[in-house]
Fold each of these.
Amino acid sequence: MTKYSRQRECIREFLSERYDHPTAETVYINVKKDFPNISLGTVYRNLSLLTELGEIKKISTGIGPDRFDWNTSPHYHVLCTECGSVSDLKMENIDHINILAGNEFEGKIDGHITYFYGKCQKCLKKENG
Ligand code: ZN
Ligand code: MN
């Protein structure tokens, strides 16, 4: 294994142990422990490559930086507008909204990207004292 593929493997492994959908910055800070000379740019490039290869999923919410998910199977996320956390949401698949959208569209709908937002339990507790 080359140094580059070892770095990439380390990034993939780090992600696979996390359920909080880390940012590139968080990945960088942790991978640096094993590869002190790695740059943030290299981490970004590896995350992009892994995303292209379909080994991880990029979550671009428009709120805060992109996040990364080792779980590439279809599932939904909730964003906390208070602390920026991104959590998995176990809910029924809502693919039928593709049909609803298609009813209003002359072309062809292939899918949808949906994020839910609100306040996480932690922030809600803080708010309520
Ligand atoms: Zn929160
Ligand atoms: Mn997820």
Amino acid sequence: MSTRRNRTRRYLVKGGTALHGHVRVSGAKNQALAAMCASLLTDDYLVLENVPDISDVESLGELLETIGATVERLSPSTLRISGKGANVFEAPTELITENRASFQIMGPLLARHGFASSAPPGGDVIGQRPIDVHLSGFEAMGAAIGRDGERYVLTRACGERLHGARLFLDYPSVSGTQNVMMAAVLAEGSTTLVNAATEPEVQELARLLNLMGARISGIGTQILHIEGVPELHGATARIMPDRIEAGTWAIAAVMTGGDLEIEDAPSEVMDAVVNKLRATGALIEEREGGLRVAAQGTPRAVNFQALPYPGVATDLHAPLAALLTQAEGVSIVHERVFDNRMLYVGELRKLGAEIVSTSSSAVITGPTKLNGAHVRALDVRAGAAVLLAALVAKGHTVIDEIYHLDRGYERLDHKLRSLGVEIERS
Ligand code: EPU
């Protein structure tokens, strides 16, 4: 695998097409990334199906190869990974900083090999994004946490396993829960994680680990019990469909006045966004294997707060805000997860949106006529928001820095073109 992130790429989008037809949701980015890190917990093969072809998967694959694992693409959406050759425990900074999920190699390396070193992870600039939950979890299980310049150096006593512990997570961090859980599955004795994240991606990782021989119970609750085992084995698993991509399509249907069949939309984990879209007046039907989402005239304003699961996902905050620029009335939006999620506001304003914001709240007045302009995708989800706005803006919109969108959405332009949108990538 090789990283092909080109920071100069842009989209040219012509607005005004209502989205009608059928679109299939790809595999979940954040579950795929965590599952790839889990491959380091065994020498056997881990085969992952329905992996999205996105640049975050590519750069994490490159990181795994750099530390000695083998990553093969058996088909466009199937990866076979073996952690057998992993023998470099100092992760290269340029790959660790490509995304946030990469730091989740630390738990597996520490638990299995007793040593791991890494710079702080990268990812979207959507807040401070500390890693104290990860580090205090490792420490409670017997790891020593040192610093070498900016790098974190984790070690456990030679010849010993990490030991189980009862842990209270200061915040139900998604990747923190996953990292600590991956360390705990190979620890000696039992571990209890109190205030664990319950996001579907965390649940799926726990199920994958159990498939590999781990003993995790309480999956889906805020208290996880993990009985440590001496080793894990290989497995074959299918990555669940991406609830954030599905939510983005649902929003696009409502916003453009369209009617979409969203195949593979995981409606069982989409209650919050479905509920909000229904409150705007949209028709949403749960169907076998997906959702049908149809606009019913001008949407109505709604208020929402972005919260940990099962609340409205923070990753759908910006896309929902884009929709609310087209809703009748005043909507009030609060971000409760990250402290820098409002980057999309300035870009939507360039297109004509009426939004007043603080560092964590926005008041959106609609409906406003948007006009094509030159904007930037400032992070994955802020990028989705400007793209959605471009779909309803008059004329053409140029979206720069679409490498952010490439990190999280598979073949977005192809999918939009198949729904009749005029969109070019250059
Ligand atoms: N936090 C702490 N201490 C920690 C870790 C996090 O206080 O040690 C705080 C953060 O400051 C933040 C909150 O916890 O305010 C949530 O952060 P969390 O750790 O839960 O998020 P993450 O694991 O860094 C994952 C997804 C994000 C998604 C969030 C929340 C991955 C790779 N990323 O991030 O996805 O927004 O959970 O659901 O799994 C995206 O896909 O666009 C994306 C940003």
